[in-house]
Every structure is written in structure tokens, then in C-alpha cells.
């Protein structure tokens, strides 16, 4: 009888340890990092496709990031129809504290029209995101293409 109680107690102890390891903050931070990296990748892809509505949807509506995407959109609109833009980023670090994230990023931009290229290898800067519910929204961006 004592050995059965001991085994039941031992099984409960292992269950508590397993739940603690899987339900802890480390797993959530890793998940948040992946979501944040994916959000930044989606932003770059939307901007490269000149899908400004989609690009702005990754930003919080009243944020400086949203305004910066609108500014870039307004800069691109008067350019000839065949103009292409390619935006990529390098994420140097991510720091997450509860529902706020701060990234050290560098956005690189290439504009091309009729074989003429303009390349801007951005300077490292800060990109900030906020988590609302289960989604991350960009609230500020480091410099992109002089903006």
C-alpha cells in the first residue's frame, strides 16, 4: 500500500514538473519571438509587393510606424508604374518584456526602374512592437529608405 502511494506521489510530482516545464515563460517567449520575426518578414514582403494596405495592417493604426508606411507609400506613388521596391531586414536582437518588444533592426531597400538601381543599406535602429490580445503590432520602425 505504501509503495502504491509512493508511486502515485512520484507520478504526480513528474506531472507537475512536466507541466511547469511546458507551460512556463520560456516557451511563450520563444513563440513570441517567432511571431515577431514573422511579422517583420510579412511587413517587408508587403512593402516589396507595394501592398500598402497589407503593410499598414501589421502596424498599430495610430502609431508612428503606420505613419511611416503611409509616408513611404506616398513617396512611391508618383514613381513610374514599372518601379520595383525590395525591402529586407536583418534582426540583430529581440528583447521581450511582457507585451512589449524592442528589436535592433536594419532595413535594406532597393528601388529599380528601367535598369537604374537605388540601394539604401539602412543603419541599425530600433523597431518596437506591442502585443494586443494574441497579435503583435509594430508601433515604431527604424529608418527605411530615408524615412
User: Rg, please?
Assistant: 22 Å
Give the CATH topology: Nuclear Transport Factor 2, Chain: A
Instruction: State the domain count.
Output: 1
Low-confidence stretches: 5-24
What is the CATH class?
Alpha Beta
Features:
Nuclear Transport Factor 2, Chain: A, 4 helices, elongated, alpha+beta, about 150 residues
Tell me briefly what this model is.
Helix content is about 45%, strand content about 35%. With about 150 residues, the protein is α+β, with helices and mostly antiparallel strands.
Q: Would you give an account of this structure?
A:
This protein is of the alpha+beta class and 147 residues long. It has a single domain (27-140), classed as Roll (Nuclear Transport Factor 2, Chain: A), CATH 3.10.450.50. 44% of the residues lie in helices and 33% in strands. It is built from four helices and five strands. Strands 1, 2, 3, 4 and 5 form a five-stranded antiparallel β-sheet that branches. The protein starts with a helix and ends in a 7-residue tail after the last strand.
What is the strand and helix layout of this fold?
Layout: H1 2-22, H2 25-48, H3 52-57, H4 64-76, E1 84-97, E2 100-113, E3 116-121, E4 125-132, E5 135-140
Antiparallel strand pairs: 1-2, 2-3, 2-4, 4-5
